[in-house]
Amino acid sequence: MDPEGSRIEDDPDVKVMMAGSTLKKVKSRSWKKQRHFRLLEDAVTIWYKSRWAGKGHSTFSISEVEAVREGHQSEVLQSTAEEFPAELCFTLVFHGRQGNLDLVAKTPEEAKAWIEGVRKLIHKAQTMDEKERQDQWIRDWFQKADKNKDGKMNFKEVQTLLKMMNVEMNEDHALNLFTKADKSESGSLEIEQFVHFYKMLTQRDEVWKVFQDYSGDGEKLLLEELETFLSMEQHEGGQSYQLAKMLIDRYEPSESAKKQRIMSLDGFQMYLCSQEGSIFKPKHLDLYQDMSQPLSHYFISSSHNTYLLEDQLLGQSSLEAYIKALKRGCRCVEVDCWDGSDGEPIVYHGHTFTSKILFRDVISTLKEYAFKASDFPVILSLENHCGVEQQTVMAQHLSKILGDTLLTTLLDGQVPQQLPSPQELKGKILLKAKKLNNPEDCLDETQTDEVSDEEAEDAESPTKGNPPARKKSKLSRELSDLVVYCKSVHFRDFEHARSHAKCYEISSFSENKAQARAKDEGTDFVRYNTRQLSRIYPDGLRTNSSNYNPQEMWNVGCQIVALNFQTAGLEMDLNDGLFRQNGCCGYVLKPDFMRDGNTQFSPDKPEERQGYKPLRLSIQVISGQQLPKVNQKEGSIVDPLVRVQIFGVPGDQDMKETPYINNNGFNPVWDETLNFVIHTPELALVRFEVEDHDRASRNDFIGQFTLPFMCIQAGYRHIHLLSKDGIAIPPASLFVNISISELP
């Protein structure tokens, strides 16, 4: 809450939003329609509908909005700039893959009120503590269920609410709780009484049992009892005493308990649901790895055909796709360049019907957004189909727009024996493309400006038929000169690379070629990747922008494993899971056995490497909390089950699941233990997925969370679930008890 204790509802900008405004919603130059927008009483939900007619309306929550852009800061509003002045325009940008909402107000004052109001509401949502968030969540439900808006809720309304909340409860039990909460015996609950009802409803026996095990009197945890719990169950070791003091200060709601250094059940439950109680080691969420090793020693978050928002044949090419990828921590983006009709190079998926955008606009977007999510270098992977003239235009745009940000010379002028580190390249953009010479050579004037495609990578083409005959392609000197540490070359074989290749030479492999090499020459591939970068891209037949499993490529140390970021699903969950650590900076240090040029490591025979130590992972899946409804049909309630998958070296791939629970998405209890053996923990990812069991058809996805095995905190932990799009869906979570031990 703000220091003055003022209510956000009293803010003048928020008041304008609550009163409502008629704004123009703009989708294109030809699609512009009036919509009435207003902020609902909960100060969280924005409601809108077309004019005043009809019943249909839409809503979204402030928590879904990532940012507000003022003026003409989207492709749509730029295209209509002559029609709508900048001071009337603003764009709501959503988390995940949801498209922007471009709006035009009637007056500059109204636009300003919405821009500032939404920003204040976003700030408030981000700065709420656990208790405020829980209270807000309860109030939201009250508002939703209080159909006649009289500030009270009768038993019938409460029953409707329970259905909405995904809970199947027999009438007697519900009535019993209702009567207990209805202190005034008025037959209805006001908001405070409803909060009490909700607390009774969400009382968690499984948390209470753990609390009881460590509490001397069953009422409270003394400081030393909490310390014992942290040391015995949570494996916090020597820091348990300091941590116990900090947790009481941070999560105990009762001031008098805080003073006496004790923790109540409420405080204990809040701790377990917090960041410290989560499955992910808090220290690993921050930048914690050594960033001073050569680039080839890191996995690098990478996007394929970054300009596409949809499929590979008809989809829209968009600058927004670059913004979304860069904001997710992506550090290698791709540009496909073709000659434009007016001398300006264009970006699109060649020989397809995808729309076209200007190369210079892509580079301007890169300049603006490259380092918003991470300071570490961005690699611009250029697939160049332009003639020499427009290549020179590209070189001019790169130099002019990016300026010093573009790295165009060797860092120390020396012939590099190894690639520079992410630390040394902070704030720099590296161009990956073909080059006429080597970066350490002074260009000999007699040198030809032709480069054989034998030397360059195979261009990706959406229609991979017979490969064209090798031909000479002309390369612009100016463009060639901008390539330093990422010179694209054709890959022959590992032996040739070992004896001839330079560390700055990079080759691209289609997923199929990479898979074949990984299978037949795993150790050679791992060694190659200790010194050189390799880029993997999806097969040309994946025209629907589906993805391959990146884990197979990480298993042999490939750094730039390019995925279609626009496509939600398992493969992007793995990518998000791996790169969630280390400050989401887009670089993750490979395990030591993948950084040693003489390594013996093979993903197929992990037991042959030095330091081989398999681990047992035991996961007791205890319960779930407030899982979202999948089917919005009246009265439908989920039958949830939990599936745990291990991704890693082939021998570690595994999947186990709990039985499903009938009709309970609110507080299902499984109490089921799943056991796994992990041979290469350093490469393993663990994915928790909750599904709605369906006898007749495929199970529906409810939520998931994926993380590296090495980032797991053992003990009693909550797993905060994410939507298909990778966005938090609070308060949906799983409660688990995890133990990790060495195999006897």
TrEMBL record:
Q: Which SUPFAM superfamilies match?
A: C2 domain (Calcium/lipid-binding domain, CaLB), EF-hand, PH domain-like, PLC-like phosphodiesterases
Q: What is the protein's given name? A: Phosphoinositide phospholipase C
Q: Main EC class of this protein?
A: hydrolase
An example GO BP is:
lipid catabolic process
GO CC field: endoplasmic reticulum; nucleus; plasma membrane
Which domain of life does the UniProt lineage start with?
Answer: Eukaryota
Tell me which species this is from: Perca flavescens (American yellow perch)
| Listed cofactors | Ca(2+)
Keyword Heme, does the record have it? no
